[in-house]
């Protein structure tokens, strides 16, 4: 798995394995940055496919992380696996040169697109600076506490958005254009999922020439 992660840049696995992979891959990249013959022998002794992996570690990743002393990977929880309900995660090797290509940025864009589709409004500006309505009236302390917790959750999400803008050197307008395109894609996917049972019925009823639902 360490070899595959170095080759492909990201893997989906269980959380415990992802944490162990992070330790091993960080160690291999550190060896690759040393660039010595002894480091090469250590890499070849541990990893599969050394002809493919060694040039990546001593070339691509050594240049990418030349000014970075550690923390070359990121682990993102992605929910639980069906069947045994094991906690799953996506582990990826960071790419400071192209942070917009990282999984975390794509997840953020998808989250913003879903929010925009549900609230039917441009979402980036409000996501960056969430506000708590000062004129809101609450029936009891429980409702006020719930509203405060929701606002705190929005503040944490806003911090992620601002960090993503800083890492990618994007403006809010540029991010909004990406979110708009993703919103259209998410809308199309939802429409396809909602029409799936009907489409199966149509295909079963007219197997040779089914009518289109569009």
UniProtKB/TrEMBL annotation:
SUPFAM superfamilies: Prokaryotic ribosomal protein L17 (SSF64263). Coiled coil: none annotated. PROSITE patterns: RIBOSOMAL_L17. Keywords: Ribonucleoprotein, Ribosomal protein. GO terms for biological process: translation. It comes from the Eukaryota. GO terms for cellular component: mitochondrial large ribosomal subunit. InterPro entries: Ribosomal_bL17, Ribosomal_bL17_CS, Ribosomal_bL17_sf. GO terms for molecular function: structural constituent of ribosome. The keyword Secreted does not apply. Belongs to the bacterial ribosomal protein bL17 family. This is Ribosomal protein L17. The lineage of its organism: Eukaryota, Fungi, Fungi incertae sedis, Zoopagomycota, Kickxellomycotina.
């Amino acid at each position: 798995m360490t070899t595959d992660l170095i080759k492909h840049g990201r893997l989906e696995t269980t959380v415990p394995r992802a944490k162990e992979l992070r330790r091993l891959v960080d160690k291999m990249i550190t060896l690759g940055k040393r660039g010595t013959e002894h480091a090469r022998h250590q890499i070849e002794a541990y990893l599969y496919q050394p002809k493919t992996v060694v040039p990546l570690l001593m070339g691509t990743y050594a240049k990418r992380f030349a000014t970075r002393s550690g923390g070359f990977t990121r682990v993102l929880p992605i929910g639980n696996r069906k069947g045994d309900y094991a906690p799953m995660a996506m582990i990826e090797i960071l790419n400071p040169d192209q942070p917009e290509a990282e999984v975390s940025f794509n997840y953020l864009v998808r989250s913003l697109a879903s929010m925009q589709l549900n609230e039917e409004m441009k979402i980036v500006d409000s996501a960056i600076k969430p506000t708590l309505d000062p004129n809101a009236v609450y029936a009891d302390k429980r409702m006020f506490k719930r509203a405060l917790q929701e606002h705190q959750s929005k503040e944490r999400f806003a911090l992620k958005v601002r960090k993503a803008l800083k890492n990618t050197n994007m403006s809010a307008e540029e991010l909004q254009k990406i979110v708009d395109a993703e919103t259209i894609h998410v809308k199309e996917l939802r429409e396809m999922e909602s029409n799936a049972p009907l489409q199966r019925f149509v295909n079963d009823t007219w197997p040779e020439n089914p009518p289109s639902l569009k």
